[in-house]
Amino acid sequence: MTQHTAQPRPLDGITVVSLEHAIAAPFCTRQLADLGARVIKVERPGSGDFARGYDQRVRGLASHFVWTNRSKESLTLDLKHADADSLLESLLADADILVQNLAPGAAARMGLSFEALHPRFPRLIVCDISGYGQGGPYAQKKAYDLLIQSEGGFLSVTGGPGEEQLAKAGCSIADIAAGMYAYSGILSALLLRERTGLGSRLDISMLESLVEWMGYPMYYAFEGAEPPPRAGAAHSTIYPYGPFPAGDGGTVMLGLQNEREWAAFCDKVLQLPTLATDERFSANFKRSANREALRGIIVEHFSRLSVAEVMARLELAQIANARVNDMQGVWQHPQLAARDAWCQVDSPAGSLPAMLPPARNSAFAPRMDAVPALGQHSDEILGELGLSAERIRQLRSRGVI
After folding, report:
1. What would the pLDDT profile of 61-95 be if each residue is shown by its tens digit?
2. Active site residue 118
3. Which CATH class is domain 241-324?
4. Residues 283, 294: Cα–Cα separation, whole Å
């Protein structure tokens, strides 16, 4: 259940019913829960959200599930069972928002489209998340994160040169993009409802969400122009901008933005002030065209220094830089620790660390409640709908919940 505090949260009193699985919809609704919404997560009896079974990396729990499902209530309900219809109807009668990312067309076939629900629940906001959106030749096509990264052109600008060096993002970037637009879209729909008194429908496409993030490379390749070359972890058009090895085996990430920084880099980092005016490197487009020669010079000089020494010189020259952290380095990041970015949340596996939402608001504390066990809240939620303990037992024995 939602915990209320002395400081009201923006979405206290808002109820979300979510027919969700995997990442996009759960990431959206977890953020609504962060702001105080009550999120009722409807899951399949016996198995639940299939993301529960992706791995067992978090003391037996799945990493994706722990990340996207804190602060929710789990209700098991077989949506294909005839007895589920009346239960879902009762849930929606008290809900403000319905979120779903079922297979294309599945919600509509169950009578859960906005058009079917709006006459009965005029204030209900319906958010449909799918791979390709409603309508068009791809509407019924299955979509997973990697496939959308491919269709949306993301793979064409990541990785190294050559088709064999295509590289996907190391996290579910298409799902995250869709979840973020669903989250912000729902907030705007709530504001609109305050003005009109009516709910509205959100049609969230993973493809369109990711393509929006691809604006720079798309305009760079405008009207048939050459797209940005794949440059691995380096910048495709600015140089030097990317990872460079140091002499102690570590790696430093650095980035130059202008000619003033280039001169400072040559003088204070490489300690080769005359390099700044070398005709091969005297402008960014020249440095980018001659990056292999320049990289050789930088790597040769960095080979005499440790990561700490390189970063000290970069700081002195006021050149942007960063360590290339692995996951353990991020868990232990001193900046996150200094800003108290971590708290503890409960789970079926015990207390676990969780990062506070990045959008910190001085007026309220985010909700940081437990990751639910499968069906943990079924009896409580159904009891709120007026079902007796005996009726709940019957539903469970018949596989409805």
Report:
1. 999 999 999 999 999 999 999 999 999 999 999 99
2. no
3. alpha beta
4. 12
